[in-house]
Amino acid sequence: MADYHWPLLDEETPLDTLFRKGRLALAAVLVLALAPVALAAAGSPQLQAFFQQDLTDAAYQQKVYSRVAGKWRQPGAKARPALGKKVVVRAVIGRDGKLVSTDIAIESGSKAWDDAALAAVKKAAPFPPLPASFPLATLDAHFHVAWVASP
User: Fold this and answer.
1) What angle do CA 43, 59, 56 make, to 5 degrees?
2) CA gap 24, 15 in Å, rounded
3) Is the preceding omega at residue 126 within 30 degrees of 0, hence cis?
């Protein structure tokens, strides 16, 4: 195993000599140590919608998802939840498309984020009427809004 000796910064070892010799390992270590912090700052919101199994109409699911996505307004940077955290908004949609009820099933840890997700679902209503092929009077839908690392 090689034994590395790093020169000290003094009058005998000017900075330009360190740069020329490629002795920037300390800087590289610092960059790698700070990478998780940079990733958290470089996140983005992610919306997912989940519908009860009885609803097999993919076009209807897409319409509902698109309406909620169109109403989402991300709160300011200070209101973001921690990386990987999410809010889950539960919604019950009536046969006529009206929103029967909503609530927050899982909190993200940021009240502003949770409020924004709940507002998006409420503002998206009314939804299109349930498909004729759907056998029940109401549809349960869950909307997950998470803060995730950007790819």
Assistant:
1) 100
2) 10
3) yes
- pLDDT, tens digit, 9 for 90 and up, residues 31-72: 333 344 444 457 999 999 999 999 999 999 999 999 999 999
Helix (H, G, I), strand (E, B) or coil at 4: coil
- pLDDT tens-place string over residues 106-131: 999 999 999 999 999 999 999 999 99
Task: Map tokens 């996140």 to a residue.
Answer: 43
Which conformational region is residue 147 in: left (phi greater than 0), alpha (psi within -120 to 50 degrees), or beta? beta
Has residue 73 got a pLDDT over 80?
yes
Q: Following DSSP, what letter does each residue of 10-70 receive, concatenated?
A: STTS-HHHHHHTT--HHHHHHHHHHHHHHHHHTEEEEEEEEE-TT---HHHHHHHHHHHHH
131 close to 57: Cβ distance less than 8 angstroms: yes
Q: What is the CA radius of gyration of the chain?
A: 25
